[in-house]
Specification:
The chain is α+β, with helices and mostly antiparallel strands and about 270 residues long. It has helices at about 50-60, 90-95, 105-125, 160, 175-180, 185-200, 210-220, 235-240, 255-265, and strands at about 10-20, 25-30, 35-40, 70-75, 80-85, 135-140, 145. Helix content is about 35%, strand content about 15%. The strands form two sheets. A five-stranded antiparallel beta sheet has the order 1-2-3-5-4, covered by helices on one side. The protein has a two-stranded antiparallel sheet with strand order 6-7. Helix 6 (about 185-200) runs antiparallel to helix 8 (about 235-240). The model has no long low-confidence stretch (mean pLDDT about 95). Bound molecules: adenosine-5'-diphosphate (ADP). Belongs to the protein kinase superfamily. Tyr protein kinase family.
Length: about 270
């Protein structure tokens, strides 16, 4: 069945490569007068039938702080996914490239952007499952948007999807995700705390010198990431709130967005 989310290949022009990820190459392109990023799904990388079902829901999620999925081109095999183009690439690289040159307002503004996109997902009962600075992208106007929401459900690589796997994002995962794979908006909140930490360290890797096993042990012992030097005390308190052991003790994105906004005098 052909939905509104089906992209006609005749409307799509492909250009240069802008990156590559778990699903394969990402090219820039043009679709109906719009600049787009096209994910060319590698053979065997994605459970395509499951994704097609979900694509309808995902194209309907629309917010200025989310990277828009415009549609899917299923006539090609393997299929390709058509997204809003984010000219300045992923947030982690963007932060590292601008080290020492970003103001407090800029850093807080990035956290606000991400929390707005996440509050929208939360209000739609949509769980991201892999929030991290590498999965946020930056537009030509320096707006940060949340990308790749829900996509790990369609990855066909055990190393990535099993919490025992070598590619599983343990360092962004809450204790209940590590132990029982129990994903929720509250586990997204934990990841958001780590993402704020990435922003305020200007793109450092969390728990840089620890293995995944050591991180799990440290978390169990109640240890947490330390306050980044650039983070104001009030921002660090919000991070620690995100890292409460019990999911119900963590804030919602709606509340966190409100708290971050009250720290900003933009
Ligand atoms: P995957 O979901 O396959 O793992 P990613 O989303 O990590 O792929 O994308 C890989 C890289 O491609 C990103 O790091 C980024 O540089 C680039 N990229 C992905 N999506 C976009 C986009 N919408 N606009 C611009 N560049 C993008």
């Amino acid at each position: 069945s052909k939905g509104q989310w089906e992209v006609d290949p005749a409307d799509l022009t492909l250009g240069e490569e802008v990156g590559s990820g778990q699903f394969g190459l990402v090219l820039q392109g043009r679709w109906r007068e719009r600049r787009v990023a096209v994910k060319m799904v590698r053979e065997g990388a994605m459970s395509e039938e499951d994704f097609k079902e979900e694509a309808r829901v995902m194209t309907m999620l629309s917010h200025c702080k989310l990277v828009q999925l415009y549609g899917v081109c299923t006539q090609h095999s393997p299929m390709c996914l058509v997204f809003e183009l984010m000219e300045q690439g992923c947030l982690s690289d963007y932060l590292r490239a601008r080290r020492g040159r970003m103001s407090q307002d800029t850093l807080l503004g990035m956290c606000l952007d991400v929390s707005e996109g996440m509050a929208y997902l939360e209000s739609n009962n949509f769980i991201h499952r892999d929030l991290a600075a590498r999965n946020c992208l930056v537009s030509c106007n320096n707006v940060v948007k949340v990308s790749d929401f829900g996509m790990t459900r369609f990855v066909l690589d055990d190393q990535y999807t099993s919490s025992q796997g070598s590619k599983f994002p343990i360092k962004w995962s809450s204790p209940e995700v590590i132990k029982y794979c129990k994903f929720s908006s509250k586990s997204d909140i934990w990841s958001f705390g780590v993402c704020m930490w990435e922003v305020y360290t200007e793109g450092r890797l969390p728990y840089e010198n620890r293995s995944n096993g050591e991180v799990v042990e440290a978390l169990n012992a109640g240890l947490r990431l330390l306050k980044p030097r650039q983070a104001p005390e009030a921002v660090h308190l919000l991070m620690e709130w995100c890292w409460k052991e019990k999911p119900e003790d963590r804030p919602s994105f709606a509340l966190l967005l409100h708290e971050l906004a009250s720290l900003s005098d933009l």
